[in-house]
Amino acid sequence: MADSALAIETHDLRRTFKGGVEAVRGIDLWIAPGEIFGFLGPNGAGKTTTVRILCTLLPPSGGRASVAGIDVVADAGEVRRRIGVALQEIGLDPVQTGRELLELQCGLYGITGADAKRRTGELLELVGLTDAADRRTKTYSGGMKRRLDLASALVHSPEVLFLDEPTTGLDPASRLTVWDEVRRINAAGTTVFLTTQYLEEADELCDRLAIIDDGAIVAEGSPERLKAQMGHDVVRLELNGADPATTEAAIGQLPGLERVVVEQQALALYVEDGAASIAEIVRRLDRESVQVSAIAVSRPSLDDVFLQATGRRLEGTEEEEAEAA
Fold first, then answer.
1. Sequential pLDDT tens for the chain (325 residues)
2. Residue 294 sits in which domain range?
3. 135 in the same domain as 59
4. Which of 170, 228, 289, 297 places its Cα 20 to 30 Å from the Cα of 158?
5. In this structure, are 151 and 242 located in the same domain?
6. Is the domain of 159 the same as that of 14?
7. 3-state DSSP helix/strand/coil percent for the chain, to nearest 5?
């Protein structure tokens, strides 16, 4: 039986598609009410499939899941009454105004007349669209459409809100605005289940997160705890044309070196004490006449956590770095 104290709970959740493809492989989750919980992983990892199961849009092949204490298979209708869902595909009628769309959505949940107008006004203010309320949605920017989609998922004050990659395709400024809306929604008491492939998004928003890869959870915890568990610093050498193998050979068996990862035009050295290692790294490179363009030391990031858990970088990382630049 599901624990009614949990907002979301799964045990050995599985989904297999035709041809034997296992999209979700034995996922266990426990999410407390009021959390912003992140589901972090690359495209095709099983994030969206998991969300669709939890939202009752897709039956599991095995295991069990409950949302707001309700079994997603045994009582799917009651689950739907308790959740809000904003999937990647935004389904807005381009000829409707934002206000009309929200009032229509209210009607679908039995909120009519003056109550619908009041609730629509509250939601437009919540997501910062009051001034654009009477414009047709086809005139909205991508960020505005995403915020209106959030509002439409909130008309019935859901206990749990599912956001499937809510900022994919948005520019950095719009992404920050959506983050603010998510924080406000959560502050009002709604549990948020957020799937994302953006590391900064997970780091900024989530109380806890799980990293999913190839349908299975490979790491779980708060962003800070996951980064602290790495237990080392990252020294990054910008190669600027230098040969990675030659550079790695020049460094050799550096004291405290755990491993070396070859990146695009860079080497990442995972060492116990990054600051103390810099002088020895420079000395060894100079001795072998190997020149690099820059050396930087940092604490581990979620990308480093993801790399350690899966053996590769997350696809969204390069896009984030380009936007930051």
1. 344 589 999 999 999 999 899 999 999 999 999 999 999 988 888 998 999 999 999 999 999 999 999 999 999 999 999 999 987 666 788 899 999 999 999 999 999 999 999 999 999 998 889 999 999 999 999 889 988 988 998 899 899 999 988 888 788 888 888 899 899 889 999 999 999 888 889 999 999 999 999 999 999 999 999 988 887 889 999 998 889 999 999 999 898 898 888 888 889 898 988 889 999 999 999 999 999 999 999 888 888 888 878 877 776 544 444 444 3
2. 232-299
3. yes
4. 170
5. no
6. yes
7. 40, 25, 35
Question: In 10 A of CB 33, how many CB atoms?
Answer: 15
Query: DSSP secondary structure string, 7-54?
Result: SEEEEEEEEEETTTEEEEEEEEEEE-TT-EEEEE--TTSSHHHHHHHH
Whether 105 and 237 share a structural domain = no
Residues 246, 273: one domain? yes
Side chain identity, residue 296: A
CA–CA distance, 231 with 305 (Å, rounded to integer): 11
- Work out how many domains the chain is built from and give that number: 2
Backbone angles phi, psi at 91, to 5 degrees: -100, 75
70 and 110 both lie in a single domain: yes
The answer on 272 and 155 residing in a single domain is no
Question: Which pair of tokens denotes residue 210?
Answer: 């799980």
Q: Is residue 79 in some structural domain?
A: yes
Question: Is residue 1 helix, strand or coil?
Answer: coil
Q: Are residues 193 and 277 in the same domain?
A: no
Point out the domain boundary residue: 179, 198, 222. Answer: 222
Query: What is the DSSP-derived secondary structure letter of residue 299?
Result: -
CA distances from 284 to 7, 35, 50, 299 (A): 54, 48, 48, 23
| Length of the chain (residues) | 325
Q: What is the pTM of this model?
A: 0.79
- Tokens standing for residue 293: 């363009």
Q: What is the CATH number of the domain that holds 140?
A: 3.40.50.300
Nearest-angstrom CA–CA distance, 5 and 182: 22
